[in-house]
Amino acid sequence: MFERIDPKSLDQNVFSLIGDQWMLLTAGTGEKCNTMTASWGGLGVLWGKPVATVYIRPQRYTLEFVEREEKFTLAFFGEEYRKALALCGSKSGRDIDKVKECGFTVETADGAPYFAQADLVLVCRKAYWQDMDPTHFLDGEIDGKWYPEKDYHRIFIGEIETVLKKK
Length: 167
Hints:
The protein is an alpha+beta fold. The protein has five helices and ten strands. The protein has helices at 14-20, 61-68, 82-90, 98-102, 140-146, and strands at residues 2-5, 23-28, 33-38, 41-46, 49-56, 71-76, 106-109, 112-115, 120-131, 154-166. The longest helix has 9 residues, at 82-90.
């Protein structure tokens, strides 16, 4: 059971939420969605609104879903789901049904899919996207270290429209 809360009432450390706990980035419909584990991202304020920024490499299957849909979700889980999140970050939805493999239950909020097992869910409406441009890296080591395959991330900024917190 979830309750809707104001984004300003979030009291978790976003660096721990995203960088340590990881998150599932999900898009599609309640009937057909795909998810991927992400540990890169950000939460903040842009254009006077609460936003989430996510980064997706071009080969990720989830990218097709995020590009096609108006909304995506970010879901955060307890430590007991660490193995499921590891699977969602290492296997492709092109090859396996990750939702089934993890035993997740798909729910929807405002038309966007998320998982009932999550502790916290952010429903985001896409507001902006841009492909990373390697000519803009100011630290010359970033390109070689993080992009040896030249598979630069597509950046999405989504307005956080709904926050669901498990009661």
